[in-house]
Write a sequence for this structure.
């Protein structure tokens, strides 16, 4: 099986890996729109993966569903959490592939702590309007299953430092979290806060690793823009992302790293169907009944 697949259309090139159905490269006219990673090696920082059957983290890897306690493996030991689901560790199989479209599939579970069976399908299409992705999950077992999903791209506006990039997205609240484990505390309005990007402004030195909600959807879509004020040299000024109403949450992360690791090299933008630790809180957690399915969609494009 091929380890990765290349799509080209409308001035765009996308490379998707079989492992994790991860977006390894997305370029417009040769300009990176996401932080890439090297071919054939490990995927650093979950770049571009599909995070399912839960986005973000589960505290202590434990949760209860329909009265049964479950323990999934801890893969973020420094915070004692289970991070980004199970599908990122899997090799997805190709169902369909041509120059402008790709469909990859995988089966999640049953496995330790997740005794359910989901059939996942990732559909990627590329055209002059950018890269469009939809993820469909179908419950292939005879019991209900908990589910959530998000993409995990690190967007790149241009060659200027991230602090200079101008960010805009319409969300009126964010989820405050504990500083040590990034676990939910409560929803806080963005009014008067450094996290208010309802009007376009530079990110500056603000450090963000939070989920936002109260998102404005116009015609069924929410939109985020990220621009490099210095321009990009190819007639465009940045990168944009849109997503549908299946994702009422948005994780933003400024990719801060301790020295000497390269820091703030891209902005993680993750439309999520549910917030962090939803397997415990139940907030917007999707309950997939036997045979039922759920689809979430998003797009990335040059500005």
């Amino acid at each position: 099986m091929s380890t990765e697949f290349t799509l080209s259309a409308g001035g765009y090139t996308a490379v998707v890996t079989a492992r994790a159905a991860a977006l390894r490269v997305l370029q417009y006219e040769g300009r990176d729109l996401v932080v890439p990673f090297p071919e054939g090696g490990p995927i650093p920082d979950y770049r571009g993966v599909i995070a399912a059957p839960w986005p973000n983290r589960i505290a202590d890897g434990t949760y209860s569903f329909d009265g049964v306690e479950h323990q999934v493996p801890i893969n973020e030991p420094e915070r004692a959490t289970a991070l980004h689901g199970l599908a990122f560790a899997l090799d997805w199989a190709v169902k369909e592939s041509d120059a402008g479209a790709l469909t990859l599939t995988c089966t999640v579970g049953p496995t330790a702590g997740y005794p359910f069976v989901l059939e996942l399908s990732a559909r990627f299409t590329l055209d002059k309007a950018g890269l469009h992705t939809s993820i469909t999950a179908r419950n292939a077992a005879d019991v209900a299953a908990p589910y959530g999903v998000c993409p995990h791209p690190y967007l790149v506006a241009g060659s200027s430092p991230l602090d200079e990039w101008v960010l805009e997205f319409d969300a009126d609240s964010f989820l405050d979290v504990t500083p040590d484990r990034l676990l939910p505390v409560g929803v806080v309005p963005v009014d008067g806060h450094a996290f208010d990007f309802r009007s376009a402004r530079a990110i500056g030195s603000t450090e963000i690793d939070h989920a936002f909600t109260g998102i404005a959807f116009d015609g069924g879509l929410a939109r985020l823009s990220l621009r490099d004020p210095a321009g990009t040299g190819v007639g465009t000024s940045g990168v944009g992302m849109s997503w549908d109403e299946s994702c009422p949450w948005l994780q933003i992360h400024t990719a801060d790293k301790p020295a000497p690791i390269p820091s703030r090299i891209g902005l993680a933008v993750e439309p999520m169907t549910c917030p962090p630790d939803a397997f415990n809180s139940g907030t917007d957690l999707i309950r997939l009944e036997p045979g039922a399915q759920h689809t979430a969609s998003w797009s990335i494009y040059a500005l």
